[in-house]
Design goal:
Layout lengths: L6 H13 L6 E4 L2 E4 L12 H8 L7 E5 L5 H8 L4 E6 L2 H13 L6 E5 L12 E7 L3 E3 L8 H6 E3 L2 H9 L4 E12 L4 H10 L2 E12 L4 E11 L3
Parallel strand pairs: 3-4, 3-6, 4-5, 6-9, 7-8
Antiparallel strand pairs: 1-2, 9-11, 10-11
Helix pairs in contact: 2-3
Length: about 230
Amino acid sequence: MTVKESPEAAARVLRHAMEGEDLPDSFTLLGREWDLHRGVFPGTLTAATEVMASAVPYPVGGSFLEVGCGTGVVAVTAALAGCAHVTALDINPKAVANTRANARRHGVGDRVRVLHSDLYGSLGPEDRFDAVFWNVPWTYVEEDFALSSDLHSAVFDPGYGGQARFVSGAARHLAPGGRLLIGTADLGDRERLDAFAAEAGYRVELLRRVRRIEVVRVMEYHLLELRTATA
């Protein structure tokens, strides 16, 4: 079932958490300390980052791509879990800098490549990965919604156009046998996701469901895998 949340409500909750002058410059998650830069989605604002960083099936010894890396928790965790090569992408240049800082902080700067990129835009045709993951901005807004700040691009995906492009472009960057993964929640529009996944030749399977009690609601987080229709 899809649970609706207004864009205005989401923006009110997040604005201070990304821009407040009283924010700390670090946070603790998964037993580690992480740098936090202003204007980057904090990894502790919801349980989404912790849940996904713990649930993603990292290809140990292989290559991993994260779209929308934010503070870099998932990308750095992938390297610490044994991925030989990690690439992290984000459309927000502040997030790119934040992820690089956390890769250095945890000693994996040599294995985590971080690029400023709109989805796959900064990748070359030779860039292929054993797993591709995005913890998507699940709050649905109409296609004409203006993404006027880094805050908006962190939490809103107008018309789910970003997710549609993520799915349709993934085949060009998946290694043979590679896995396409999405992190979302019960606030997302699953019917819409299923529809454009089917158009791209995928079926969506739920790998893991995690429920967490948060400040204003019980959130249910979903780790999904998109498999080709013939798989």
